[in-house]
Amino acid sequence: VYLVQGLDPADIGSVVLKEAQNNVTLKRQGNRFIVTNKDNYAAVTSKVNELITKCLDIKTGELYTADKANHQALGVTEEDAEIIVKFLRPDSSLLTGVVMGKSKEQGQGSYVRLLSDDSVYVTLERPWFSSSAMNYIEQELTSINSDDIESVTVNGPDEVYTLKASDSSENVILENLPEGKKLKNSDAKNVLLALASLRFDDVKNESAAEDKFSFERQFACRLKDSTVYTIKIAEKDDKTYIACSAEFTDKILVTEKEVKDSNDVELKEKEARFLARDKAKEFSTKHKGWIYEIPEYKAENLTKPLSELLEDEPKTEETT
Question: Are 12 and 126 in contact (CB under 8 A)?
Fold first, then answer.
């Protein structure tokens, strides 16, 4: 028998997860959910659906007890539960809720009950829930095909340098390479491809942040389709924070009539420009006003000093 019955997901105004000291609240906002613990950052719809489905799929094999006096021993009181999932209406009243208790001795199931019922059941299988707010957020900031990257410009407090992709995908070119120096190609390639895949560990709204950030560094990545991703970088308390934006820099306008009058090759090119322009605009809108904390190993490639990318050219021996 399914533990939760008659729950219509359309009636859910918010979902609250409680596990030990961790609380996560997912609140419906229009046709999506937001994570209130993270300044109302957008939640991933598939993750919210997965959470709802896990609760709806809980099956019980037997009634263990209906005596409330046994709840504490089984770990199904609100204070002792391993995890509680509450489904609330838009007015914050309770729709239903699941209380997960201890695992059953010598069995695969766990003790479980509905929040509104004293009856405790044993599940056929124990579902696992994540009470980490970040688990319900899409943590990937950028995903760019490395072949589409034309160049990157690293702008620090004391220097600016530009790396370009060569015709050979294996080599990187440094503009204005100093005489007697050569580029460490492997390290330079890590910098060039820093935005090919960039994830964040935490997020906060700039207006709600208690601390103000000083963005003294900048990383700009230009794609071959004229899109430029700009990452502003701040360092505080041994952590790295960034703000993101994108711009489609090809300002030549293409009208819909021109698209209709184009041949197949021209049509694909013009459609690609439309898509690139819209993608850049969507990226900037999505990330405007948000500050992201990124892992240290990613920050290193965004802030790499030029000196760490250069080494001396090997000296040749003179022969008589």
Answer: no
128 phi and psi, to 5 degrees?
A: -115, 135
The strand pair at 202-205 and 197-199 is best described as unpaired
pLDDT digits (tens, 9 = 90+) for 36-48: 999 999 999 999 9
d(CA 70, CA 76): 9
pLDDT of 43-62, one tens digit each? 999 999 999 999 999 999 88
Kind plus residue range of the DSSP H or E element containing 296: helix 296-302
128 three-class SS: coil
Q: What is the distance between the terminal CA atoms of the chain, rounded to a whole angstrom?
A: 93
Residue written as token pair 């359309």:
10
Contact 114, 101 (CB under 8 A): no
Kind of pairing, strands 120-123 and 110-114? antiparallel
Beta bridge pairs of residue 2: 59
Instruction: Please give the single-letter amino acid code of residue 291.
Output: I
Tokens encoding 12: 């859910």
Instruction: Give the Cα-Cα-Cα angle 257, 258, 264 (nearest 5 degrees).
Output: 115
pTM: 0.88
Could you tell me the two tokens for 178?
């100093």
Give me the phi and psi of 56, to 5 degrees please: -70, -25
Distance, CA of 110 to CA of 62 (rounded, Å): 11
285: left (phi over 0), alpha (psi -120 to 50) or beta: alpha
Number of H helices, E strands in the chain: 6, 21
Nearest to 3 by CA among 136, 131, 125, 107: 125
